[in-house]
Amino acid sequence: MSERLTWGRAHEARRERTGCPPWHGLSEAAVIVLCGVTVRTALPVALVVGTLLSVVNQGATIADSGLTPDVGMRVGFNYAVPFVVSSIGFLGAGRRRPDSATLSGDGTQSR
Q1: Is residue 99 within 8 Å of residue 6, measured between CB atoms?
Q2: CA dihedral over 68, 69, 70, 75, signed as positive or negative
Q3: Would you say residue 15 lies in a domain?
Q4: Is the residue at 6 inside a domain?
Q5: Tally of domains in the chain
Q6: Would you say 33 and 107 are in contact if contact means Cβ atoms under 8 Å apart?
Q7: Residue 102 falls within a domain, yes or no?
Q8: What is the pLDDT along the chain (111 residues), one digit of tens a residue?
Q9: 58 lies in which domain range?
């Protein structure tokens, strides 16, 4: 495929579909996450995946001895990790790239 899309146009279309605001740099991404922009997307993923992980990994321990502080911390991580991963995936649509970058038809980035 010889057609080349500018990175900005291709990314702008994806950004509009996901609703992710444009960002550049770790500090801007952190602000987006801390302001709750990713919650609508990441929270359902974290609830489903975190519950499955907790049942599989901690279910027997909780059934035998209840929810101890140690187990509670592990369960918390079972929810936190999918939330962070889903937030990072959501942020991928909004990352600003330099205007000079292009995306070739085969999906590789060139300048």
Answers
A1: yes
A2: positive
A3: no
A4: no
A5: 1
A6: no
A7: no
A8: 445 555 555 555 555 555 667 777 778 878 888 878 888 889 999 999 999 999 999 999 999 999 999 999 999 999 999 999 998 888 877 777 655 445 555 555 554
A9: 24-95
